[in-house]
Amino acid sequence: MAVKLRALKTVRFRRVHWKRAAWAYVLLLPALTWLAAMVLVPSLKAVLDSFTDLSFGQTGSPLWTGLDNFARLWRDPKFWSALQHSLALTALVVPLEVVLGLSVGLVLRRPLPGIAACRALLLVGWVISTVSQVILFERLFSPGDGYVNQWLRAMGLSGWARNWFQDPQFAFGMVAGLHVWRNAPFFAVNLLAGMLAIPKELYESARLDGANAWKLLLHVTLPQLRWIMLTLVVGHVIFTFTDYTLVAVSTGGGPVDVTEVLPLYLYNLAWGHHQLGQASAVGLVMFAVLVLFTLVLIRLQWRGQR
Amino acid sequence: MKRRTFLKAAAGALGVAGWCGPTWGAGRRFVFWNALFDSYIYRKEFVPWWDEQIRVVLPPYIESEPSSALPYPTLEQRFLLSAFSGEPDLIEGVLDHVANYQAKGFIEPLTERFQAWEEQDQYVPAMLDALTIQGQLWGLPYIGNGRALVYRKSILGKYGLRVPGTWDELLEAARTITAHEPDVSGYMMTTKKGLIRGFQEFMSHVFQFADRVFAYESGAWEVQLDVEQVTQILGLYRAMFEGDPSPIPKLQQGKAALTMDLEYSLGKIAMMPNGPYIFGWRYLSDFQRQLLETDTGIAPLPIPPQGHAGTYLEVKSVMINGFTDLKSEAWEVAKLWSGRESVLRHVSLTGDLPARKDVFEGLKDLVDDATFNWQRQWFSILDDARALDPLPLAGVRDATFDAIQEAVFTAEPVADVAQRLHAQMALQAQNFTAPVA
After folding, report:
1. CA-CA distance, B44 to B410, in Å (whole number)?
2. Digits of tens for pLDDT over chain A (306 positions)?
3. ipTM of the complex
4. B85 touches chain A (CB under 8 A)
5. Which SS3 state, helix, strand or coil, does residue B200 take?
6. CA torsion A298→A303→A305→A306, rounded to 10°?
């Protein structure tokens, strides 16, 4: 009797569960359809395009060219230079944003007078449009009357004044600085939110065990911020690696290509030369690099947790 | 039919009608994209007049959509994506766009319509030639501009300098001014990577050696300059930043064109190659108006050794989308845009040169004295202006940007840079299509 009852309950549970699941899928359907239409289909199309000679205004179907587009990229020194710059920029910028964002977040966590206003001000720079941010940053460093050059001259260091964004020795660093200037506050605000959500009991018990401030940061704060940090890092690696606007507006890839990054290279292929097939191949390479990086990062994070 | 079913069906029908109504009821819209309405002064001074005029030209069953105003690069990108749909019906653009759209079959040839128009003789032949590809006219011109030396009379006067006529005189005059004026650059050139104005300035110097960049000879396109001439041009770029003081302060390497225009109008640059459009900056302040209207002189670009007078010609035109079903209407609107009254307003607002002779002739009575004086100074520049051949020049442009950057920012011998640029130009020429006999 008991066995029969249990079996009946199981069947009923499965039926209800299946009904709920089906209903959930029905609710998800519009969003999934939208995603498929707007993201999946164009992405698959771009993958296919990367194996063709597709260009704007082509009469007739594009020709299947196999790996020709990739072979051409392989032979183009400008592609390698742009890839190198993109990787270097990402590798330099994201760790700096993490360190700076975390430091600022730690300072803003303290209940100091006026701290709420500081927290709000932090996001002002981040919410204005990217082009305006570049113009503001360039204004600070403009060659003639930029504030930095003016300060240098006022301190008797006229020889140090330069055209920061158009000096081959400094331009790459300036673009990296621009990225950090824009994104570190976003890291700070998010990490601050994560810190404020950490239960106070964890700190209290660690203190009872004799942990000092450094150990609290290392063994309580950072482990608790692990997932928010992962999300931020993955997001900003993707942003930095694929960003076009900051570089295009500030340096245009110059001087002498020292800031030429893959998004600029891709844009020029697509819109300057109208070679959509080749541009799609660059896009596919960028996608592969980002997928690889994200998988490695997530794996490291999982391993760290275990 | 049950009452409830009927009500449901009626409500559904009303809903569908409501949803589709705005589209069905409005009839066909006429769509015109241009880059000019993007500016405040155009929206204030031109658009209200234009909206009235276009209603007169279009049949009553066609509505005119407010014209979309986008910067040229965006305009080109959107047209490349949407031309197949038939929208926009009419698009405005520069010479480079005409060549691109024509090569892809996106625009309608205008030759037949133009030849049947009684006003065809009013157009400046050089501008029509620039818009003629494979024997057909593809755009209706309305304004154009050339590059000349724009200079501040007061600064040249202050140092007893005459308007430079040769490259050597230009270098010397610029060096003198830069040495004595702490906040003024003696000269300026566009050297930021990827800016089309940089390419146009470079081509101005190319036309000081040859009337065409490429010519079709013996069954192939060939570069009309030799390596030595390219070396001379790149040598000018190098020389501008050499010496102490250099003619252009070294801090100004990598300058963007728009910043140059602004800085000239604010008195921070003494001389530079520019077009008549810089006159548009006079609307910003009294200082800028005074500087541009009374203290600015126009002269032909200084001439290189073994070179001659010559400069770059830009022509702006309107083109009809080859896929629109409103071609006749688009032609009527094109004629309105390029008509005397309209061109007069364009000239007055942009400072550019008119594409029509009847505007040239009656200009004095039609615009204010400052505009007339400005235009008069530019007329003679057009005699030596040459348009680029309507060829796919993206590869040449990229190679030119690279060469300018290498000349300005590196110590590599200019002859080597020139050799590379010349080789790239020759390579690109191999891909150009042969012209129709």
Report:
1. 46
2. 666 777 777 777 777 788 888 999 999 999 999 999 999 999 999 999 999 999 887 777 899 999 999 999 999 999 999 999 999 999 999 999 999 999 999 999 988 888 888 888 888 877 888 889 898 888 899 887 889 999 999 999 888 888 999 999 999 999 999 999 999 999 999 999 999 999 999 999 999 999 999 999 999 999 999 989 999 999 999 999 999 999 999 999 989 999 999 999 999 999 989 899 999 999 999 999 999 999 998 888 777 766
3. 0.82
4. no
5. helix
6. 150
Alpha-carbon distance A57 to nearest alpha carbon in chain B (angstroms): 5
Which residues touch A96 (CB under 8 Å, ≥6 apart)?
Answer: A176, A180, A184
Q: Which residues make beta-bridge pairs with A64?
A: A52
Do B254 and A56 make contact, defined as CB atoms within 8 angstroms? no
Distances (CA, A) of A233 to A226, A236, A301: 10, 5, 12
Q: What confidence tens digit (pLDDT) does each residue in B345-388 have?
A: 998 888 888 999 888 777 777 778 888 888 888 888 888 899 99
Query: Between chains, do A166 and B253 touch, taking CB under 8 Å as contact?
Result: yes
Is A255–B105 a contact, with Cβ atoms under 8 angstroms apart?
Answer: no
User: Residue A247's closest chain B neighbor by CA?
Assistant: B193
Question: On the CB side of B92, how many CA atoms lie within 13 Å of its CA?
Answer: 26
Nearest to B194 among A57, A252, A273 (CB): A252
Rounded to whole angstroms, what are the CA distances from B301 to A169, A287, B147? 33, 48, 7
Tokens of B52: 């009235």
Question: B148 and B273 in contact (C-beta within 8 Å)?
Answer: yes
Would an 8 Å CB–CB cutoff place B268 in contact with chain A? yes
Is B193–A254 a contact, with Cβ atoms under 8 angstroms apart?
yes
Map out the domains of chain A as residue ranges: 1-49, 70-305
Would strands B140-146 and B311-320 be described as parallel, antiparallel, or unpaired? antiparallel
The one-letter amino acid at B328: S
Go through the domains of chain B in sequence order and give each one's CATH number: 30-145+313-387 (3.40.190.10), 146-310+391-429 (3.40.190.10)
Domain A70-305 in this protein, CATH class: mainly alpha
What's phi and psi for A195, nearest 5 deg? -65, -40
B105 closest CB neighbour out of A57, A166, A252: A57
Phi, psi of B29 (to 5 degrees): -100, 145
From A55's Cα to the closest Cα of chain B, the distance in A is 10
| A273 interaction partners in chain B (CB closer than 8 Å) | 394-395
Using an 8 Å CB-CB cutoff, list chain A residues near B103: 57
- Do B183 and A144 lie within an 8 Å CB cutoff? yes
Rg for chain A, CA atoms, rounded: 26
Nearest by CB to A57, which of B80, B183, B254?
Answer: B80
Model pTM score: 0.85
**Which sign, positive or negative, has the C-alpha torsion B260, B265, B271, B277?**
positive
